Amino acid sequence: MTFPVPVLDHVVINVASQLDDASALYRRLGFQLSERGHHTLGSSNHLAIFNENYLELLGFEPGRGDKRKDLWEAPLGLTGLVWKTQSADDEFTHLVQQGLDGEPSAAFHRPVRLPDGQQTEARFKTVRLRPSLIPNGRSFFCQHQTPHAVWQPAWQEHPNGVKNISEFVIVAQDPAGSALVYSRLFGEERFQATHDGALVLKAGKATVRIASEEYARRRFGALPEDYNGTPRMAGLSFLTADLAQVKASLQHGDIPFREEPDAIVVEPERAFNVALRFHR
Predict the structure, then answer these.
(1) 40 and 147 assigned to the same domain
(2) Domain hosting residue 235, numbered range
């Protein structure tokens, strides 16, 4: 069987009705965010675009909370692990073959104003793994039909110097059990076990790490306040050009942080329920 190659496309942070507060906070964290976008499905977002992947703050504007209700039932914080694909339809066929399928691919778009002022649309096709397989969030493939409407050089420069998401951490009491869905998706040989019991999947410029609570607390200092022991998308690491830029951005934004010899850590209560780690 031919398996898709795992490459992280983007991550989703569920901010529900708090788009204004969340976007202001992530700008204080040193990210350049896109203008607010509005999907044809009813949700709204802000993006922080990097070289290969990006971060999405996803929520809804007043009076639109009845759209895409299933999204807002997830915990606030990191709830979306999204993979690149050239064909959402092909991925759906693969999901069916592996017994991982939910609904067939869906197409949607949002208007975009490019840096030169030109109006265009960002168009996507996505296909989601069966929701019951992904506790406290979603995992899906995203086919960018108009990548130029997302990856613009002017949007890839951030005050904190971030170049890419480098790590996506899922906390689980049973890492092997939580990794099973992704080993069925990409092939078990893609995973590597670490000495501390974590399972790591290389995903382009990023790695996806399924690890214990102990590991996450050691690496990030804390977990989301509402962590209840069930598998949870909990933390992100970022590759930055210069930790001095990160430190200056956080100081300017009045964001408390912890310095380590080779990293700067922001605990989840300071980053909308997501633990953040910046490194060179």
Answers:
(1) yes
(2) 162-279
- Using DSSP bridges, classify how beta strands 138-144 and 77-84 pair: parallel, antiparallel or unpaired: parallel
Please state, in angstroms and rounded to a whole number, the distance separating the CA atoms of residues 71 and 131: 11
Three-state SS for 171-223 is ECCCHHHHHHHHHHHHCHHHEEECCCCCEEEEECCEEEEEECHHHHHHHHCCC
CA-angle at 63, arms to 60 and 69, nearest 5°: 55
Q: Which residue from 11, 169, 131, 163 is spatially nearest to 83, judged by alpha carbons?
A: 11
In the block, residue with structure tokens 């780690």: 277
DSSP-assigned letter for residue 101: B
> For the chain, what is the domain count?
2
CA atoms of 244 and 108, how far apart (whole Å): 39
Whole-angstrom distance, CA of residue 213 vs CA of residue 193: 16
Statement to judge: residues 150 and 166 lie in one domain: no
pTM of the model: 0.96
**Mean pLDDT of each 10-residue bin along the chain, 280 residues long:** 94 97 98 95 95 97 84 95 98 97 94 96 97 97 97 98 98 96 97 94 98 94 94 98 98 98 97 98
